[in-house]
Amino acid sequence: VLPDTEPDRIFMAVDPAFGGGDFVSAPICFQYGNVGYIPDVIFDASDKKITRPRVIEKILKYKIQAARFEANNGGEDYKEWIENELKKLGYRLNITSKKAPTNKRKEQRIFDKAPEIRELYYLEAGKRSKEYNMFMHNLFAFKITGKNKNDDAPDSLAMLIEMREETVGFKPEIFQR
């Protein structure tokens, strides 16, 4: 259950995909203080002609204020298409892209953010959509050792946590010029 007040921030991290069994994974976070709630996700292995409009739909539905796209392997083009469509609709948000670091294995990046991922609040089983259930199944199936057939959900959550940590403690300050 979300708090009764307006969230401090509404943001999402998007791990784009272009088929081949890979999923577009995009958790949406409502942040209240240092507590994050995940009320909805996109977890879809469809073609980009289907997933890009779905990302736009969720941005508009939840009034997302900031979105970050993984820039590796075509992610920058994916983000630019969405950014252009949102501009046509007159919707503004802080939309960025960032390459996944190459100096650290993906499994290690996920492992490093695992405590914060566990602290997020997720929908309980009876309140989840089929897509949300698939996302959670993918998250729970992740193994730090051995092979992972698909690690899109934990990877997108690690990106979400990184995004949240970059703004924690940031307070605008008014000063004399």
Please characterize this protein's 3D structure.
This protein has 177 residues and is an alpha/beta fold. It has 5 helices and 6 strands, in the order βββαβαβαβαα. It has helices spanning 48-62, 75-88, 106-119, 130-141, 152-165, and strands spanning 9-14, 24-32, 35-44, 66-70, 94-98, 121-122. It has a 6-stranded mixed sheet. Helix 1 (48-62) crosses helix 2 (75-88) and helix 3 (106-119) packs across helix 5 (152-165). The radius of gyration is 16 Å and the shape is globular. The mean pLDDT is 88.
Contiguous helical run count: 5
Distance between the termini: 44 Å
Low-confidence stretches: none
Roughly what fraction of the amino acids lie in strands?
15-25%
Radius of gyration of CA atoms, rounded to a whole number: 16 Å
The helix/strand class is: alpha/beta
**Major β-sheet profile:** 6 strands, mixed
Question: Please, what is the average pLDDT?
Answer: 88
Order of helices and strands: EEEHEHEHEHH
- What sort of overall outline do the alpha carbons produce when their principal axes are compared? globular
Strand order of the largest sheet: 5-4-1-2-3-6
Q: Tell me roughly what share of residues is in helical segments.
A: 25-40%
Number of strands: 6
